[in-house]
Amino acid sequence: MEIKKQSSYFRKNVDKMTGYIPGEQPQDGLYIKLNTNENPYAPSPKVIAALKGEIDERLRLYPDPVSTSTRKKVAEVFGTKPERVMVGNGSDDLLTIIIRSFVSKDDKVVYPYPTYLLYKTLAEIQNAKECIIDFCEDYSLPDEILVKGAAVTFICNPNSPSGTMIPVEKISEIAGKIDGIIVVDEAYADFADDNCLRLVDKHPNLIVLRTLSKSYSLAGMRLGFAVAQKELINGMMKVKDSYNVDRLSAASAVAALDDQETFRQNVSRITKTRERLTSSLTELGFFVYPSQTNFVMIKCKDSYETGEIYRKLKERKILVRYIGQPRLDDCLRITIGTDKEIDTLLKELADIQLVLLNQNS
Amino acid sequence: MEIKKQSSYFRKNVDKMTGYIPGEQPQDGLYIKLNTNENPYAPSPKVIAALKGEIDERLRLYPDPVSTSTRKKVAEVFGTKPERVMVGNGSDDLLTIIIRSFVSKDDKVVYPYPTYLLYKTLAEIQNAKECIIDFCEDYSLPDEILVKGAAVTFICNPNSPSGTMIPVEKISEIAGKIDGIIVVDEAYADFADDNCLRLVDKHPNLIVLRTLSKSYSLAGMRLGFAVAQKELINGMMKVKDSYNVDRLSAASAVAALDDQETFRQNVSRITKTRERLTSSLTELGFFVYPSQTNFVMIKCKDSYETGEIYRKLKERKILVRYIGQPRLDDCLRITIGTDKEIDTLLKELADIQLVLLNQNS
User: Fold this and answer.
1) Does residue B7 carry a pLDDT above 70?
2) Taking CB atoms and an 8 Å cutoff, what residues of chain B touch A92?
3) Cβ(B163)–Cβ(B192) below 8 Å
């Protein structure tokens, strides 16, 4: 028999893709991490207590395959019904379930550019036809986002990496006009002035995604949820792995959602720091995109300066996100840290600006 | 614009499938659960201690996207290299990654019948062409398992629900002759006399799957791993969700694997109970398939008796698995519980046999 080359076992579309590369995750704890939009504050003490109460002999048993208690709690907090909620192993799991539910080979997957990179990766894995629509200069959405015959349109709102937000009325208008499913990925919505949850009633093709990674300080637990009309949730349930959410993640979600006070406090601290950081960065001469998230995107003078700032910050043990793709090569995305972390960042940034000035003179 | 019917948003193949239905998971704790192959013994005390040590402020941070410490520990315990290991959110996650990596629409997916039902579900979601090969009467594999042009062949070994095992030499022979990828799903291999891990060196198309759900008593934590040559692992890494394994699952896996003594003790207790249960069931007149797993499959007189036994056991708060599909309608799958649970089962079974005898006379 002919010996096959090993790489040929993979599907062609998988072979040629590079895969999504997450932000740096140094495991040594020595950096001020402002690169992956984690929450700088600890999760609720109720989460810690709930988890400690769950760690016992019951870990030998499978979790509830339909995450009943988590869905009930989500429904209660967000004013919807459990049958309109689906829970995932992070919202990435839900994005994967969505693409496998609604997108066949060569179907059109639409998303604006630049945005969360995973939509591209998922479309590539599914061998879909990507329709990538450039955001307008001010990160509003052009009418081209309405693509005829689109199977799924992804809109990260507020958007990453820009931090900007499309008004809810505009999303509703798009949902009403669009072919296929519209996914509004609201990973950052808790830091915004508005959100699209109220649109679910009106639009049978709308799926709103949320995560506990950012606003509830639980990135380490992987818990996301989708809100959509029952018919969509029921179909997507067939596609998810049976036990996609483990016992401890489910318990942490219930406890986190139960403590709205800690949540509100942390979100309020972060948005306050965001406003201060925005002012200070503007004073330092950067253009700061108006942010509705727990990060800001800044525009530097040019791509050279951007790379230099990224590297020099890293030397000084501060990680920010340098995406370095077209249209973003002069931009940096900076997560909102604690006030102390942001003070350090601002001090080092000012110092790096001086160093760069001296280099050039 | 024409209003689309909601169900039509789904892919046709997804719309028409029923989805995998996991075994009953009553959340009330009132049953003797012998239906989903959970381990009756608690996980290692080291797991409990490790988890308690992990529950703190760090939950706000993303987990290591490539699960470095878990892969190292797997490599150490199983005598392989970390680059040959991939970790998943249960081995179901790995099965999903495999089908998305290697199977395009209309590609052939091969598996014997009857076996783990998820292979069918995954093939349906991927819109693959299923080639279902009947096991021989004695649950050996016929030569028809070698399907020309197969993209992926799944072999659950030891097999569920039969409990039977294909010899490792036979698997090696198949791996050498087969087209495409062969997945040996060794969820139950820790309860068997042999396993296929040593074949990974020899076969560039082989992926061996393991889980900590059964032998390490961690079904609630969702931790599985794949062992394969580096080229396969590297490609599959592109397809997995970036943060598919959460912080606590990763920590529980390292601690569980680190405590080989508890593991061996529990496995040995279970296999001892399995032998006793096998003898007793045989004495009660059932045919018991030779098991290399933590469950046994028995053959009853007919499908009527099988359904009656299942129902009457459930009334008596004992759950066993009644699959009720072709060729299995006179079979029950019974998980090995504690000795006390198995004593209760045997007592109730004997009693139910008397009841059924009186009904018929």
Assistant:
1) no
2) 241-244
3) no
For residue A52, the chain B residue with the least C-alpha distance is B52
pLDDT tens-digit readout, A198-211: 999 999 999 999 99
Q: Is B146 on the interface with A (CB under 8 A)?
A: no
Strands (E), B157-292: 181-185, 206-211, 224-227, 287-288
Q: pLDDT by residue (tens digit) across A292-309?
A: 999 999 999 999 999 999
Report DSSP state, residue A238: H
Distance between CA B169 and CA B111 in Å, rounded?
18
Predicted local distance difference test score (pLDDT) of residue B24: 80
Closest-CA residue to B187 (of B162, B161, B156, B218): B156
Tell how strand B129-134 and strand B150-156 pair up: unpaired
Which residues belong to CATH 3.90.1150.10 in chain B?
A: 12-41+261-360
Alpha-carbon distance B298 to nearest alpha carbon in chain A (angstroms): 23
Amino acid at B195: N
Whole-number mean pLDDT of chain B? 95
Please identify among residues 246-265 of chain A the ones whose CB lies closer than 8 Å to any CB of chain B.
Answer: 246-249, 252
Beta pairing class for B85-88 and B108-113: unpaired
Position B6 scores a pLDDT of: 47
**Model confidence over B286-327: pLDDT tens digits?**
999 999 999 999 999 999 999 999 999 999 999 999 998 999
CATH 3.40.640.10 is the classification of domain B45-259: yes
Interface test mutation site (partner A, options B16, B221, B222, max chain A beta carbons within 10 A): B222
Do the interacting molecules here have an ipTM over 0.90?
yes
Structural contact between residues A166 and A142, judged by C-beta atoms closer than 8 angstroms: no
The token pair that represents A340 in the structure block: 């102390």
User: Going by CATH, does the domain composed of A12-41+261-360 fall within 3.90.1150.10?
Assistant: yes
The pair of three-digit structure tokens given for residue A226, joined into one six-digit string: 């989708």
Q: Which residues contact B359 (CB under 8 A, 6 or more apart)?
A: none
State how far residue B354 is from chain A, nearest Cα, in angstroms.
33
Does residue B216 contact residue B257 with C-beta atoms inside 8 Å? yes
What average pLDDT does this structure show over B195-202?
A: 98
